[in-house]
Amino acid sequence: MQTSKILFVLGGLILTLSLSAGTLRASNQAPRATLHPLLQIEPVNTYIVTKTDDAGINSKGAAGTLRWAINQANASAGFDLIRFDIAGSGVQTISVKDWLPELTDNAGTMIDGTQSDDRIQLDMGQANPYHDALSLEGHYNVIKGLIINNNPSGVIGISTRNGSSYNTIIGNYLGTNAAGTAAKKMMEGVHIHAGSHDNVIGGVNGVTPGGACTGDCNLISGNFHQGIVIDHADNNRVIGNFIGTNASGNGAISNSDDGVLIANSSDNIIGGPTPEERNVISGNTNINLEVGQNDRATRRNLVQGNYIGTNSAGNAAMSSQRNGVVLATNSAETILDGNVISGNNGTGILIFKGSARNQVINNKLGVGANGVTKVVNNGNGILVQTNNNQITDNIVAYHPSQGIRIKSGTGNQIRRNSIYGNAAFGINLQKAGFTPNDAGDPDAGANMLQNFQVISSAGVSNGIITVQGSLNSRPNQRYILEFFHNPICDNLYNRNIGQGKTYLGMTEVTTNGSGNATYTATLGSGPGNGIVVGTATDSAGNTSAFSECAKIQSLTPPPSKPVLVSPGNGATATSNPPLLDWAPSENAVRYVVLIKESSTKGAKVHENKNVTGDQYTPPTLAAGKTYFWRISACNADSKCVKSKWFSFQAP
């Protein structure tokens, strides 16, 4: 294809040179080196826009106008570049009359607003509301560095139609003012229509993860409906954009409906595994990201590595009005992987009836990107109303309601998650309250109302946790039992029910003919305090709620009380720094040395929590002052016994 383009140019060279200076690149303008971002080829023809005029659809446009340049590109063979060189500098506004010509050349046209000191704004206030601002009807188009705004009654900023594919949309402001600080609405920012595939919205060049929207990042905010719509269109990518925020990424400019809507479309990718591919989808009025409609199956869409509901740094809420992610009717096999879904005013992830076999893995809900800072969703963390979803290896914390609620549906696996600090239950099945076990587990309902296990003891010895317990459920069935540590028992609804912050391990059991199984599970290293809770998951993937709490008991004998030797109590040390000496403690594996100045309640001068011998030399102390010291002996389970206080004077 590219060979034919080159031959066309060579064959028409004499004709090209005879055209007026306004037809092709101006003779006094040296074009910057430009390559198509996908094809990596240079343009065959370059058309320079020198005017802000627009005469409307009854004219092909005077030479030097954008309308003229698009018509020229459509009529010429090969990949074309349209760039701008308008007198003056700053924001140059083209007030579009009615609508601009569609881009129809399948070799592609690049409209690049970044190749001069101008910023190019297409004001659509006088445009036909039934036409797109820029309509891409050929392949391989590139729309770069434009500001398109000001028609909420119907104009879509950039739209692909008639199967237009392999287009790239980078570095634009769609729906805001030129500063990216306020809404200047259109109907939608970008709409990928039926049959369009392999389009890329955004990119990774020049983006600043955690900072402002720069480089290939599109700012798609402030629109009357959605920011981005992908409808009946497969295999498209959305990477590195801000959708619903301001250009700085620290405040909302809401799209009034969804931030991103994937409708009746499959195999699209939103985000990616690197920080540069991350989209910030926050501040939108309805739903930040919605997948699924009811006209055509929506399958295998990947949502990866995005910040959904937070600022661009991932550490504060963006005041999104409703839910973070909604997997709606007729969607399936969506993968939500490695996203931060926090700061939304409703539920973090809502999986509706009619959406099934989704994977929710490695996400952070209710916390920021560091996995620690509270950035709360103001509802449930995850709410499921359907079947056969996998919820694994997520953090779900600090929600004012349930952490994970399976309201309806079966086969929903909830495994290896960190679930803690939620105001109601960490895992809740069906009704919003406690569901007790029932003998033989014959009942049906959400996740078959799977019985939870009963932990009879949790002991730690030399840092190794061993749990004993039982499960009563359906007979002759295999179950996976998982165990979690939490610092405290939550005691929700006046019951000894906990949540599970740290995954400890698992074991498998098979119930007998009466539905009973017992176990002893050695889980490896773990803390010597707090509580253990557990879940049970049957072979069909139905996971129970958390069990009642079992307090961790140390099985290792406590250390004997340390006895201080020298310096003797009230003595003057023989050296500075002093050599601290004490008698070894039985069952101790380490000692904690603490030195305070002037009294036992004085300022801490020095502490070392991991001394393995029975002598220790601290740093040099101020001469002539009185110091108090104490030793704590600790066993393998961090059970510690303190000595008496001794004082000494530093020489």
3D structure, described in words:
The protein is mainly beta. It has 3 helices and 54 strands. Among the domains are: 446-554, Immunoglobulins (Immunoglobulin-like, Sandwich); 563-649, Immunoglobulins (Immunoglobulin-like), CATH 2.60.40.10. The strands form 8 sheets. The protein has a 13-stranded parallel sheet with strand order 1-2-4-7-10-13-16-19-23-27-30-33-36, covered by helices on one side. An 11-stranded parallel sheet has the order 6-9-12-15-18-21-25-29-32-35-38, with no helix packed on it. It starts with a helix and ends with a strand. The relative contact order is 0.05. The model is unreliable at 1-31 (pLDDT under 50).
In brief:
This protein is mainly beta. Helices cover 4% and strands 35% of the residues.
List the helices and strands and how they pair.
Blueprint: H1 2-11, H2 13-18, E1 45-49, H3 66-75, E2 80-84, E3 90-95, E4 109-112, E5 118-123, E6 134-136, E7 142-144, E8 146-149, E9 151-160, E10 168-170, E11 173-174, E12 186-192, E13 200-201, E14 219-220, E15 228-231, E16 237-238, E17 242-243, E18 260-263, E19 269-271, E20 280-281, E21 289-291, E22 298-299, E23 302-304, E24 307-308, E25 325-327, E26 331-332, E27 335-337, E28 340-341, E29 349-351, E30 359-361, E31 364-365, E32 382-384, E33 390-392, E34 395-397, E35 404-406, E36 413-415, E37 418-420, E38 427-429, E39 454-461, E40 464-472, E41 478-486, E42 502-510, E43 516-525, E44 531-538, E45 550-554, E46 563-566, E47 571-572, E48 580-583, E49 590-597, E50 604-611, E51 615-616, E52 626-634, E53 640-642, E54 646-649
Parallel strand pairs: 1-2, 2-4, 3-5, 4-7, 5-8, 6-9, 7-10, 8-11, 9-12, 10-13, 11-14, 12-15, 13-16, 14-17, 15-18, 16-19, 17-20, 18-21, 19-23, 20-24, 21-25, 22-26, 23-27, 24-28, 25-29, 27-30, 29-32, 30-33, 31-34, 32-35, 33-36, 34-37, 35-38, 39-45, 47-54
Antiparallel strand pairs: 39-40, 40-43, 41-42, 41-44, 44-45, 46-48, 48-51, 49-50, 49-52, 52-53, 52-54
